[in-house]
Amino acid sequence: MITTGDLKKGLTIEVEGQPCQILDWQHIKMGRGGAIVRLKTRNLRTGAITDRSYDAGERFKRLYLDRSNVIYQYNDGQFYHFMDNSTYEDIALTEEQLGDAKNYLIDNMELDIVRYNDEPISVELPEKVVLKVTYTEPGFKGDTATGGSKPATTETGFVVQVPLFVNIGDSIRVNTSTGQYVERV
What is the pTM of this model? Predict the structure, then answer.
């Protein structure tokens, strides 16, 4: 059991019997009242994001999740299919379980699958991924003086703001935690 003083971003705890990952937290000290902790959590089973307040000193059960290496195979419209590298079993996850991770999945991509009590609940992406630009408006000479950006659609359908010099067919590196352009590859 951990208290509200031990909470931090990325930690996995049990809230009302459900495994939840802490996305953000704030410690708030009221004027005359006691302190409270405001938590923003994501339910790892359903993908639902909730904001709740707890009294300072409240205890939570910390969860330890298992991870195994998998390869993303395909999306059949309803499920995203992965193959476990060690057992070769097919693992299917829904769009809700993946959350924003679905924006970065490309065929044959290696990543980790997260399990809670032997139930696959989500995936853990690498920090940065390389995606190919499939559509973007052309940049014009002289536009770089403002340091502007433009939207670019990647091979997964995800739209990223990129510098004006990026063209169709270029490969770009994207940060998976922020969804922002890092560099042209």
Answer: 0.75
